[in-house]
Design goal:
about 270 residues; 4-stranded mixed sheet
């Protein structure tokens, strides 16, 4: 059998470099080693997240820039007419899995640039808000547990689950059956309490450090936001809006979104 000899033209041909982002497969934008022109592949924040198969927690410590930033927002957004802020035991930065990061980033770019409010950032009119939920473990060492009733670990690892709306509170919400976030840290602290241990908002013991909950600090892709100032359980008009904002007399607001991919956890506050 004769051997195959490459001609001059074949010898000069080479395979175009492929984008370095895991799972992309596109050719690089300039024919050089690196990334393609897709917005996710060019995004520094996505590169920094790496290609993590699982979400990772990193404990922050007093004096760290991010620790002090989150603590400041938590304390400033607490309604001190109710009581003093519950002391923070620890704060964890959440480094989401590539799957969760990709899902959220793509959703923001799908929504695109739109009118913002407050400290919103485009694309997606992304806001930072609090969400209170049940915590059954301690998160010591930055490890999530596998207890299905530990909502904090479930959300950190897998993202929010719209099918579980109202599971803890027993109702789907006053402003529609969606996922709720608030600008008031004290409001968030009142959710996800350990009811079996006797903690209940009506008993006025919701602020106790051992109430069995954590406060998540989340990024929320609000997009075009419908503002209301009264109870509104109607379905959101998805042709006009991506979220609903409830402006309260206290000056705090609540944000409601109907898709889990429109939010991602950035930090966890533990008491």
């Amino acid at each position: 059998m004769g051997c195959c000899v490459l001609g001059p033209q074949q010898e000069e041909e080479s395979v175009e470099p492929i984008c370095s982002r895991t799972g992309c497969g596109r050719q690089t934008w300039n024919g050089q080693a690196g990334y393609c022109s897709h917005h996710l592949c060019k995004s520094k924040s996505f590169h920094d997240s790496g290609s993590r198969p699982l979400t990772v927690l990193k404990e922050l410590f007093s004096g760290d820039e991010k620790f002090e930033e989150i603590k400041k927002q938590y304390e400033e957004k607490w309604d001190k007419n109710r009581c003093a802020p519950t002391p923070i035991q620890s704060i964890y930065a959440v480094l989401p899995s590539s799957t969760l990061e990709l899902r959220f980033t793509e959703e923001c770019h799908k929504v695109g640039d739109c009118p913002k409010f407050g400290h919103g950032k485009n694309p997606g009119n992304v806001q930072r808000r609090f969400h209170g939920t049940r915590l059954k473990c301690s998160l010591k060492g930055g490890f999530c547990c596998q207890d299905k009733e530990c909502s904090t670990c479930g959300i950190i690892q897998n993202g929010f689950d719209i099918s579980k709306v109202g599971q803890w509170s027993g109702n789907s919400g006053l402003y529609g059956s969606g996922i709720y976030f608030t600008s008031a840290s004290s409001t968030a602290k009142g959710y996800g309490l350990d009811k079996e241990a006797g903690f209940d908002f009506k008993k006025n013991n919701w602020m106790h450090p051992n109430a069995g909950n954590a406060v998540l600090v989340c990024k929320v892709c609000c997009g075009r936001c419908q503002s209301v100032d009264d109870k509104d359980k109607s379905d959101l008009d998805r042709k006009q809006y991506e979220s609903r904002k409830v402006d309260k007399a206290s000056g705090a607001d609540e944000l409601v979104v109907w898709e889990a991919e429109k939010t991602i956890v950035s930090y966890v506050i533990v008491f």
